[in-house]
Amino acid sequence: EPEVTQTPSHQVTQMGQEVILRCVPISNHLYFYWYRQILGQKVEFLVSFYNNEISEKSEIFDDQFSVERPDGSNFTLKIRSTKLEDSAMYFCASSDLVSSPLHFGNGTRLTVT
Amino acid sequence: RKEVEQDPGPFNVPEGATVAFNCTYSNSASQSFFWYRQDCRKEPKLLMSVYSSGNEDGRFTAQLNRASQYISLLIRDSKLSDSATYLCVVSRGGTGGGNKLTFGTGTQLKVEL
Prior knowledge:
Chain A is an all-beta fold.
C-alpha cells in the first residue's frame, strides 16, 4: 500500500535555528497538509496546500512557518527561527480528493533545545 | 467548549470485552466524521469513517447522531492489539483547497489478559 514518508524521523536543533521537515506524499495525491502534536496533547492542524498554494492555515502557522512543494514529489515545512515551544511531532498528510480521508506520514519528532 | 470532546480514559478492559467510546462536537456545520487510531508516538491511522446511518467494519461499529452532535465507537470482542488511543475527528467536509480535520484529545484503551 502506498504511504506518506517523512524525513528525518527525529531532528534536534537549537533555539533560533532554521529547520526543514520533508515529506513525500502519495504520488497521485493532490491535497497536502501539516499537523503537529505536542507531547501529551491533541493533534493540531497547521496548514493545507493545494494547487501550489496554501488553502488554509491555523493561528499556529505564523510568519515563522512556510511550506513549499519544490518539485513534483516533495512537500516541505520550514520553521525559520525555532522556539522551545515548537518541540512536537510533526505529521505530514495527503489525500487524493478533497473529501477523502487523510493518509498520515510516520512523523518527524522535532526537539528544540 | 472544546471543538471535539472525548473522555481521555484510560479504559482498562479484559480481552474479549465490549467497550464503547463517545465523542461530542461543537460545530453543527461539521460534515465528515472519522475515528482514527493512534499507537504510542506513532501517526494517526484511519480506523473508519462515520456515516449518519451508522456503519460497521468487523468488530467495530460507529454511530453518528447529528441532532445531539454525538459520535460513538463500539469495539466488540476486544483484542490485545486493540490497545491504543482512539481519536474522534470531525471536519467541515472538503471545501476549496482542503479538508481541515479537528481532532479530539483521544481516549486511551488498554486491553488486558
